[in-house]
Amino acid sequence: MPLTQPRRLSTVLAAGLGAVLSAGLLAQPAQAAGTPAQGTYQLNYSSVYAGQTVTLRQLSLTDNEDDRLLLRKVTWGDGSTGLIYDGEVTAQHEYADAGSYPVSVELMDLDGTTAGTITGTSTVTVAKVTGSYRLSAGTTWRGPSATLPVSLSLAGVPADATQVRIGWDDGQESTVARTTRSVSHRFAYSGAHRVTVSLVNGAGVSAPLSVGTVNVKLDYTSPTVKITTPAKSNRAASWKTIRGTAADKGAGASQVAIVVGQVRGGKTYYFNGKKWVRGSINKSKVRYATVKNGKWSVKIATPKKGYLIIGYAAVDKVGNSSVGKSKQVKLTR
């Protein structure tokens, strides 16, 4: 079988030979013994967040006569080990859990085994992702023209983080400065979405912290809208303000649109937004009212005796609209 990874294989063989040497199974003439190899190393970070990676770099290597170094083994302190391979001077490791981890290096060659020297700190402190993150809602709605947004508030972001990365679990991410206080998002599709937060700094991106789940529901139900008939409905003054109610089983009713016209003695009039004008009712200006607590109202110029005709419809917060309706009232006073 051809050797496709000669460098890795040589390292494995060297490790095996080193074990034999350390067990005393291969005797070396006393006169051939020399000084074991000495190495100096340095960690690029001594404090990271869970999920981030540290790099151990070899600064120097001495007493490795005739290139007899067989093994450079790194113990990361969390139960993991690694090797610095032939021709390389670094090894990397990602810490999964918070804690304090001592790092050490073992060098082995034909002259024996020694511990490498780590300049600076030799312990990596791994912190949990901290901060306060709160979703504005656990449920939102998606309809034919919109998805209601959900916001995430941020507070207490650690000072050593430069950015916060928010995973929305719908194929989208938001990366914001650590000083950002709120981020709004519209989910791309329905379903349950697990929202996560990761901290970003020079050491990379931390492991994600789950901050909650948002359930995005589909809403294709039309709202309902009604006009409230005043007690003295035959009086023109009673219709200076047109009132009504609107309801919706999903995202909630948002707006009501109305048009008004009159028939007076066989002649038609329309309301242009300010006053009544003789002409086709189709020219009436559309008036909009915001639905608040299930109620809405629109003011118009006081109509006169005759017939008042009101056309009305409603739309909900995600784009579903009701069927247009009309109401006709006879005004006698």
UniProtKB/TrEMBL annotation:
Matching InterPro entries: Ig-like_fold, PKD/Chitinase_dom, PKD_dom, PKD_dom_sf
SMART domains linked to this entry: PKD
Entry annotated with the keyword Signal: yes
Domain of life assignment: Bacteria
UniProt keyword list: Signal
PROSITE patterns: PKD (PS50093)
Signal peptide: 1-32
Stated name of the protein: PKD domain-containing protein
Source organism of the structure: Actinoplanes ianthinogenes
Organism lineage: Bacteria, Bacillati, Actinomycetota, Actinomycetes, Micromonosporales
